[in-house]
Amino acid sequence: MNKIVLLIFCLVLFASCGKNEKTEAPKTSQLNGAGATFPYPLYSKWFNEYAKINKDAKINYQSIGSGGGIKQITEGTVDFGATDSPMSDEEIKKANEKNNNSIIHIPTVIGSVVLTYNVPGLAKELNLTAETISGIFMGTIKKWNDPLIAKENPGVSLPDKDIIVCYRTDGSGTTYVFTDFLGKVSPDWKSKVGVAKDVKFPVGQGGKGNEGVTGLVKQLEYSIGYVELVYALQNKLQYALVKNSEGEFVKPSLDALTKAAEQSVAEMPDDLRLSITNAGGKGSYPISSYTYLLVYEKQKDAFKGKVLKEFLTWALSSGESYASELGYAPLPKAVIEKAMLKVNKIVVP
């Protein structure tokens, strides 16, 4: 009998040890994020590079648009969100109250929204003003050889073809940046279409994400759409020079994006939410924007919070070096310093 009791005791002890071993297995962090398609090419690079440095960290990111990123971080279903349009005061209040926390905006890089087009036989880059862009997307400018487009492009043989407008169907930071620019320079646009992540375009065809709009423009001859620069570059699509507030037609180069940001660094508020569309200054590209990661100040999970904070610190230092090769401009030094102050405020239990 004693032998049987001893055997049962040993089996129970063995099972208990097995459970403890399972509980104490090496920790891994699956960080889940979602949001903007605008910075997706860069974020993918960042997550891959960071995984080589921190073997325990795994970062999963769903490119679903800025509206989706704000919704998911508000609902608490992701560890971080991403957006090109800063959250509104109302959105921040809702997120903070729902999660009993404080949301933080971390700017990561500067990107540009470009007007990309598919016009066969057109070798020269087009010049476009805000007035013309607004007219095209409102449907009042219908032909590629419209007098306004011809006036901005002397000597260019423009086809007598209907313009096919392509726009975003999802709640999009790219749409916000695009409409924010047009709203600043076109009273008609602001009153009739508006400035938002999701607006009702009077004409055209819709696509989901930067990928969807790029695909439409690539497929449809005589089309035009607005996308983040890297999507036009990757698909070998032409894109326009846009007239800035100084009266210059500017190509969205890295230098032009940096100049747009540098004009307003002193104006950046404490919460770092700032629009830099239609920035002043010679050589600045007028449809430029910061893009942001959204995180909560008080992290709930100690291990995941630690990894997220370490990743953000890496992204704002070593990570910035990957921006240029993918068509984004690194943050000005002064903005990096402001962003790091926010990262340092993140509380890990």
Q: Which key features would you list for this structure?
A:
alpha/beta; nine-stranded mixed β-sheet; 2 domains; 12 strands; D-Maltodextrin-Binding Protein, domain 2; 349 residues; single chain
Q: pLDDT under 50 segments (min length 5)?
A: 4-26
Could you name the CATH class of the largest domain? Alpha Beta
Amount of beta strand: 15-25%
> How many DSSP-defined strands?
12
Secondary-structure-based class equals alpha/beta
CATH superfamily of the largest domain: Periplasmic binding protein-like II
CATH architecture of the largest domain: 3-Layer(aba) Sandwich
Helix/strand order, N-terminal first = HEHEHEHEEHHEHHEHEHEEEHEHH
Summarize this, please?
By secondary structure, the chain is an alpha/beta fold. The protein folds into 2 domains: 30-110 and 289-345, D-Maltodextrin-Binding Protein, domain 2 (3-Layer(aba) Sandwich); 112-267, D-Maltodextrin-Binding Protein, domain 2, CATH 3.40.190.10.
